[in-house]
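Q: what does this look like with 5'-deoxyadenosine bound?
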Amino acid sequence: MFDSSKQALIDALSTRHGKAHQLWQRAYNARKEFSGDKIYLRGLVEFSNICAKDCYYCGIRKSNTLVQRYKLEREQVLAAAAEADRRKLGSITLQSGEVCSGEITDFVEDIIKTIKKDFPDLRVVLSCGEQSKETYKTWLKAGANRYLLKIETSNQHLYAKLHPDDNNHSLKHRINCLHTLGELGYQLGSGIMVGLPWQTSAIIAEDILFFKNINIDMCGIGPFVEHAETPLYNNKEELLSYDERLVLTLNTIACIRLSMPDVNIAAATSLDALNPKGKELAVSAGANVIMINLTPGEERPNYALYQRPQESLDKDILSELQKYGETIAYGQGGDSKHFQNKQK
Ligand code: 5AD
């Protein structure tokens, strides 16, 4: 049994070298035992980078005037869904900056309905930030299956250092949204960034316990990667090195896998910014979901949450994983086993 007390998590998060490899191996085995032997895929379409939030870490924050803002046409999003279907990715994630308006609610509702009609086998995952209960209900009714709302940090002090102090940025509100999504019946996803300035192992341990407590079905874990056009760039010198951030991210993935062995864990794209083999390493430490970017090429550079490395070819990662002996779950929706177990 894995001890997921706070102190044991802190100790596990702090392991390095050979001990860290043992932790990852244990998590990898737990993934195989409790979440199946397949790696699931998600097509990702970043349909808009327009955002009302001003998070200090994020490259598409409202105040970054250097970003060219875009919103894809309905047909472009549907073309991405068609590609996800054709490539048998099993699911599609519709992600955007946070905008709350009747127009966005309708736009997304229509797209979900159309995807469900044209590609009934595709699972639809939403990642569109904090919305009203009514909007969440509308999208669920339209056919959405899952919602990803990363908490980034569940620690009030750290949250306050990462966000403006105003009504539009409230940890409490974000947590309420997670509760609402869970109650409505979405497969619930959350996540954090690892390697933030001021973030300690104790804070990450609390985040993991927070995830257990709100009973998530899936999560996305990626390293924080500094972006030059954001306020947090001023804290660049205080950050862990890329290698240290990578190890801490992998330890976090492993601890989540061992604490909640039947949840889906996605290897966040920001892993590749630290190491070209970042996602493969995440799989070796317990992750079981890979995102495939389907955002039209001309808009991709505009969805720069962090400084992106040269985009590694998605095809490569899948054949790399297959070389390592992994089986890719083509054509499968990949509902989290945790969610399936909850329904029993
Ligand atoms: N580094 C890594 N991930 C980031 N995100 C935003 N900014 C960064 C960054 N600088 C991630 C967060 C957020 C999502 C939109 O992108 O997890 O929830």
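The first strand starts at residue 38 and ends at 48. Residues 17-35 form the longest helix (19 residues).
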